[in-house]
Amino acid sequence: MPRLSELAIISRIRESFPGGGALTDDCGRIPLPPPGQVLLVTTDLMEDGQHFNRAWHPPALLGRKLLMVNLSDLDASGAAPLGFTLTLALGRDLEAAWVEAFLDGLGQAAAECKVPVLGGDTVGRACGLGLGVTAFGAARRWLRRDTLETGDRLFTDQPLGASLRGLRKLQAGQDPLRPDPDVAAHLDPRPRLGLGPRLAELPEVHACMDISDGLSRDLRTLAQASGRTIVLERTLAPDSITGGEDYARCFSSSLDQGTLERVLGLALFPVGEVQDPGEAPLLHYDGNSLRPLPDRSFDHFA
């Protein structure tokens, strides 16, 4: 089975990734943020069999997804990307064609987003695949998780649950090469990059994060960080609450939905309301009664 050597992988990155030509040293240079802006950093790891399945995830789309999930974190923090580092742990069972397609997809995504590679590392392993990206960005105003205000409404910039539905369809045997919108949402997420910095320009937007683990985890994270309670919207479907990997911007604001939609020029979807701290960080309606919502999200350590 033909495999790529470490030097061949590095050469391909140098030739095809934006910024790759500068990868000549043990260290790389992180671009300085513009004056008045703060430097932010985020890291995501993806492990074969835990976060993705090579049996149905086309390698080019996996490369795109690896970068997009990191850029989504930066964007939801109000940051524009400055660059990224890449870590690859590649098993001996990977064919050269698979690795090449993965790198092509990642490099194309980096070029589309105008994000240069700044450095990284590659290592071999017995089998399987481990992927890591660390991304850097600059924000004029850092949108945080610990700044909810009582009375805020919470919105997302897209409906939730599509990625979970897509995962179920793939598990049931749907062809990943003929994806419907749900399968495409899981294999090739397209977060609305650029919205985060626009939200950061609005002083009435108080907190923001991207929805990667599902509302039952992510809204709990927001509530706990801010010392508040969030009450879920009554009309949310179960998939919207439990599903992860939607990579929507989820933000809180004192402005009403109509005003926000006019200012931003896009449809928003209400998901909850912020209250003073109550009996639990996250409450949902069970009939007419409010009850604590358990964490129903994906467990990365299961």
Description:
Helix content is 31%, strand content 25%. It is α+β, with helices and mostly antiparallel strands. The strands form two sheets. Strands 6-8-5-9-7-10-11 form a seven-stranded mixed β-sheet. A four-stranded mixed β-sheet has the order 1-4-2-3, with helices on one face. The longest helix is centred in the N-terminal third of the chain and has 18 residues, at 59-76. The protein is globular, with a radius of gyration of 20 Å. The two termini are 33 Å apart.
* Largest β sheet strand count, sense and barrel closure: 7 strands, mixed
* CATH topology group of the largest domain: Phosphoribosyl-aminoimidazole Synthetase, Chain A, domain 2
Mean pLDDT, as a whole number?
A: 94
Structural class: alpha+beta
Output the CATH homologous superfamily of the largest domain. Answer: PurM-like C-terminal domain
- Give the proportion of residues in helices: 25-40%
User: Can you identify the CATH class of the largest domain?
Assistant: Alpha Beta
Low-confidence stretches: none
**Which series of helices and strands comes N to C?**
HEHEHEEEHHHEHEHEHEEE
Number of helices: 9
Rg, nearest Å: 20 Å
Widest β-sheet, arrangement of strands: 6-8-5-9-7-10-11
